[in-house]
Amino acid sequence: MEDKRKPTRNIALELVRVTEAGALAAGRHFGRGDKIKADGAAVDAMRLLMNEIDMDGKIVIGEGEKDQAPMLYNGEMVGNGEPPELDIAVDPVEGTTLVAKGMPNAIATVAASPRGTMFDPGPMFYMDKIAVSHEARDVIDIDAPVKDNLRKISKAKGMDIDELTVVILDRPRHKDLIQQVREAGARIRMIPAGDVAGALMAAWPGTGIDVLLGIGGTPEAVLAACGLRAMRGGFQGKLWPRDEDDRRRALDAGCILDQVLTMEDLVASDDTFFVATGISEGPLLDGVSYSEGFAHTHSLVARGLTATVREIIAHHHLGTLSKISEIVY
What we know:
Layout: H1 12-27, H2 35-50, E1 56-61, E2 77-78, E3 85-94, H3 96-101, E4 107-114, E5 126-132, H4 146-156, E6 165-169, H5 175-184, E7 187-191, H6 195-203, E8 211-217, H7 218-231, E9 234-239, H8 244-252, E10 261-262, H9 263-266, E11 273-278, E12 289-291, E13 294-303, E14 308-317, H10 318-324
Parallel strand pairs: 1-3, 6-7, 6-8
Antiparallel strand pairs: 1-2, 3-4, 4-11, 5-8, 5-9, 9-10, 11-13, 12-13, 13-14
């Protein structure tokens, strides 16, 4: 008989309270022009909720070092110290500028995996990336020309190239990439920030996005990989030094710059947990909204082991929360 596992604890269902709290706290600062306050509010809320969870978590992907509090810093221990031992990646507000300016597509996100399985970016802040849905995960090659990748992706998805939509961060460094995508015939959606959300859009149905291409953050790649493993999407990346100083630091740290990194390299376990809650509305998630004394949130809750992705819509009664929580929702 086939070996079957008994159902085990899904920590993502506990972590969703963390991202909901972060999104609600940041949402109060939406469009008010102060990204530091928005980020700080999300950090405080997420730390408070995270430290109530039965886990021995270590932040591998955080926002800064310890002397830059109130950020959730690299190396910080979170949870109440009980098992399991986990690596944690967190971005309390992916898109702080988006929140400050009242723009779409900001999210609060956190991921977890067994201790020692998350990729440590070291000094490398940037990575060239390609992310796709499950239909095309076996055909991508980050070393191949853009047109070749788009041709293979469109064939795998049963589409013409001119039906594909590619999401790309709006950065000067992508001038040549944008030209190549347009010459291949695909459409482009430019985003000002948020390539965790961008990678997930490429894998999640109904977003209108088929591919993520371009250079974004290495920490964001690790976060996205945890979600993509549950969505059975595809990902490849290569570390990208901005200049010779970056290149030297990378080589001194033992980084292999021409290595193609897969999801399995970024998170070496299928037992991943990923959660994201929308702060502002985008193709992936609805943002925080308010009506008649309630705040409403929309979250994705994913577990790699079972390839289960839940959408959770929650209605939070603000009057009740204000009486029992120190978080300003």
